Prior knowledge:
By secondary structure, the protein is of the alpha/beta class. 32% of the residues lie in helices and 20% in strands. The chain has seven helices and eleven strands. A hairpin with a 2-residue loop joins strand 8 and strand 9 (186-190).
Amino acid sequence: MHYVILRDDDTNALTPLECLEEIYRPFHNLGLPVTLATIPKVRTDTLSTDGSLERYLFAKRRDTPQALGLLDNGRLIRYLHQNPGYHVAQHGYHHSLFEFDSGRRHDIGHRLDSGAEEFAAAGFQAPDTFVAPYDRFSRTSLSEAAKRFKVISAGWYELRRLPLAWWGRYLWKRWRGRPHWRIGGTILLSHPGCLISYKRPYGRILDSVKECVESQRLTVIVMHWWECFREGSADGALLGIVHAVAEWLANHPQVRVISFNGLTPGHPALK
C-alpha cells in the first residue's frame, strides 16, 4: 500500500474561502482529507525571498492591518469547521521571512505557543503538526517544535541545523535511505518538493506525482492554494491538473490518502 498526505500551505486570515472551495471540493467529494498548513496570525507586509509581497496576500487592501489573526476572518473559520475534510497544521506564527531560523529560544517558544492560542480561539483543537515557513529551521526551533508537536513536516533536514543529540538518528536514517524518521515521540517527515506548481511543466505534473507516490511507502504532496489563483485570477489549466491528481489518488487501488493526525510511530505508512 502507498500512503499519501495532502498538504496545502499558506491558508491565512486573508485567504478567500472561494479559492479553497474551488480547489478542494472535488477532494471532499472523493473522501480525500486535505491538511491546510495555516498561518495563525499572518503579517500582511511579509516579503518573499525575491523582495515582492508574498503572493498569498493578494487580497490585501490599503486599509488591511499589519497583522491578522484567524478570528479576523470569521467566514473562513466557519467554512473550515463546516467541512470536516479539512485538517489544520500550524504554519509558523506570522510567516515572516525565516522566522524560525533563530536561536532565541524564548522568542521561538512564544511564537509556537501564541500560534496554538490563535487556533484554540478559533475553535480548533491544538494542531499535531508543525510546518516552518520556507522549511527553514534552526537547532533551537526544531528542538522547541519537537516538544510541542507530534509531527514536523519539512522538505529536508540539514545536519548543521539539527540539535547535536539528533545527529546519530539522522545519519542512521540517511544511511538507510529513509525519507522519514523519528526523535522521541515526534515524527519528522520530508517531502519531494512542490510537485504541483505553476513553476513546473504542466504536462509532467501528473506523471511526476504518480512516479513519486508509487516509488515509496509515504509521500507528502505539497502545494499552495494561491498558485491556482495568482493575483486573484484562476489558472484553469493548473486547477484541472490538481483535480486530475485527486481522481488518480481516489481511484488507485493501492493508494490511501491519510492526514497527519492519523500518524503514529507504528503506522504502516512509516514501516
